[in-house]
Amino acid sequence: MKKSILILSSLFLTIIMQGQIIPQPKPGVAPTIKIGKPLTFELKNGLKVMIVENHKLPRVSFSLTLDNDPYTQGDKKGVAEMTSSLMGSGTTKISKNAFNEEVDFLGANVRFGSNGASASTLSKYSGRVLELMADGALNPNFTQEEFDKEKTKLTEGLKANEKSVSAVARRVVDVLTYGKNHPSGEYLSEETLKNVTLEDVKLNYNTYFVPSNAYLIIVGDVKFKETKKMVEKFFGSWKKATAPSVSYNDPKDVALTQINFIDMPNAVQSEIAVVNISNLKMTDPDYFAVLIANQILGGDFNSYINMNLREAHGWTYGARSSINGDKRVSTFNASTQVRNAVTDSSVVEIMKEYKKIRTEKVAEDMLASVKAGYIGRFVMQIEKPQTVAGYALRIQSQGLPADFYENYIKNISAVTADDVLRVANKYFLIDNSRIVIVGKASDVAPGLEKLKMPVFYFDKYGNPTAKPEFKKPVPAGVTAKSIIDNYLKAIGGEKAALAVKTIVMNGTTTIPQAPSPLSFTSKIDAKGKLMVELAMGTMSLTKQVLNDKGGYVMQQGQRQNIEGEKLAEMKAAAIPFEELSLSKKQGLTVESIESINGKDAYAVKNGKTTLFYDVTSGLKLAESKVLEQGGKSVTQTTNYGDYKEVKGVKVPFNIIQNVGFELDIKMSDVKINEGVSDADFQ
């Protein structure tokens, strides 16, 4: 069922690709700057306060940060997350609704978490907003009702992420890099969350939300003496206490570079991360050289890795690397997302760029450009008062010299090509890296196993596992026609399917960076008419229509007629159940039995499209289609689930499509043989 959503998603891909082809401009030469120092004091309870006066605008911001040692939560992983969720649910003095209403009335923003709080407001309301922030931080109201609500929301989020390739990649990279018994390696699960109680949250708060390692940073249109009095008034009653001091053995790199592969059969692209422990500290003499070396390798748009994978080969929308100095432990990480078909080639090219920066001196013009860009961004950030306060916090918490940022530009400018070569060999460990890849094993693993490095397999939680069985043989007697016929039987029978003359599907979905959920509407008339639309409120984002006269797409008020192959695709989609025509079509082949979201499915090949039908239930689980986008072949996969009966026919109420990100559409309403008129297709 439903190729219409495939057509819609191809438009998204086009938008995404077009939106990322603009190169970044080269920054100019940065001026010499002088960084002001904040005024500081400390309360008797240990709270350290830093105030930066800036009277350019009548605004002020507050930031409370708890710089405690990270700690493991064990079988109650989730207690810190629940503490963060519950903070801000009112105080012991003010109800949640009254608190939020007053914040809104003042035009302020106030946020809370297990590691601190923040607020911003007009300076004339600074006293009251600081009081509200202090009240919320020091006197949170933890109730069972709010606890149950937040726990349910967090559980639903975990369930949604189980099919997310990027979410699994983030989790497994941390597990394999740090280990499950390290604070940075343990992960939240439904099982551990179930163990968390309201009493655990209260204990977590009382243990760790203490002033011993706390910093309060105030930036904006304030006066030091007045602000100091307010801080003493609102935070002076905070009971003196010290958070537990925790230490862990540093994680270790692997003895030899290896591939760690995680199979996700629903993946249409692979997540690649090349990781090693760096242990870079901001106090290290190498710090500035490492920053520049990282920019050259993968930190900039014009970096080695990005120019190779994106610009030279067109395999990705972006490839980046990162390294941060941390007083505890840190990593170097180079990551990207590529099509399954080029995963092995991408690994080869990434490692080639690793070798290049470790064996060849960077060109002087590139070095100069990277340093100028870095300095330019530094200068732009220094204009923000919040940045100055952040620098002051790092000086305190990281043990940096007082003139660290005053000498920042000088130290960046002093980095040489020899320095880059030296630190690249020290911190970018080509021989001791984990290459963590999350993708579809049947498409990716054979190519990876041809590379000259060991491949180890893990599950979605970082546990070692056997090499997955990619494909199973099809039993004798099973044909494409028998699979299609079985599908029609599973949804209610061919007669019931033929009785469906029109079908309407209404649902909602979200896309990255969208301020609110989107509405999805699909209408199909068996006479060959189709309408698919995504809208945000009353504003249509994209709409596609097929009628007797032809097809067109409307996007941002612009109409474009659809012709050729795309028009043919639309016409093929303008049928409630495509299997009614497929059952009579010649040339379909049964490729194999593959795993789709943990279920065995027959893979039926129809030209550039592969359809997957559940071996047990007969229902369609997914379809995969090869499309041409921008001169490149792109595979789009649509997953179908949550089948429900509507007027004697089973239809999917959940459709998930990978369009560079997951478009997860949940249907709220499906109508058969009603709710459709000719006006819908005009």
What topology does this entry show?
Layout: H1 4-18, E1 39-42, E2 48-53, E3 59-66, H2 79-86, H3 96-105, E4 109-113, E5 116-122, H4 126-138, H5 144-161, H6 165-178, H7 190-194, H8 198-208, E6 214-220, H9 224-235, E7 258-263, E8 269-277, H10 287-299, H11 304-312, E9 319-323, E10 331-339, H12 343-359, H13 364-382, H14 385-397, H15 408-413, H16 417-427, E11 434-439, H17 441-448, E12 455-458, E13 471-472, H18 480-491, H19 494-498, E14 502-509, E15 518-525, E16 529-536, E17 539-547, E18 550-555, E19 558-562, H20 564-573, H21 579-582, E20 589-596, E21 599-606, E22 609-614, E23 620-629, E24 632-646, E25 649-658, E26 662-672
Parallel strand pairs: 2-6, 7-11, 7-12
Antiparallel strand pairs: 1-2, 3-5, 3-6, 4-5, 8-10, 8-11, 9-10, 13-20, 14-15, 14-26, 15-16, 16-17, 17-18, 18-19, 20-21, 21-22, 22-23, 23-24, 24-25, 25-26
Give a verbal description of the structure:
- A 14-stranded antiparallel sheet has the order 13-20-21-22-23-24-25-26-14-15-16-17-18-19, covered by helices on one side. A six-stranded mixed sheet has the order 1-2-6-3-5-4, sandwiched between helices.
- A hairpin with a 2-residue loop joins strand 23 and strand 24.
- 34% of the residues lie in helices and 28% in strands.
- It is of the alpha+beta class.
- The chain folds into three domains: 225 residues, outer membrane lipoprotein receptor (LolB), chain A; 184 residues, Cytochrome Bc1 Complex, Chain A, domain 1 (2-Layer Sandwich); 193 residues, Metalloenzyme, LuxS/M16 peptidase-like (Cytochrome Bc1 Complex, Chain A, domain 1, 2-Layer Sandwich).
- The N terminus is likely disordered.
- Helix 2 packs across helix 8 and helix 11 packs antiparallel against helix 12.
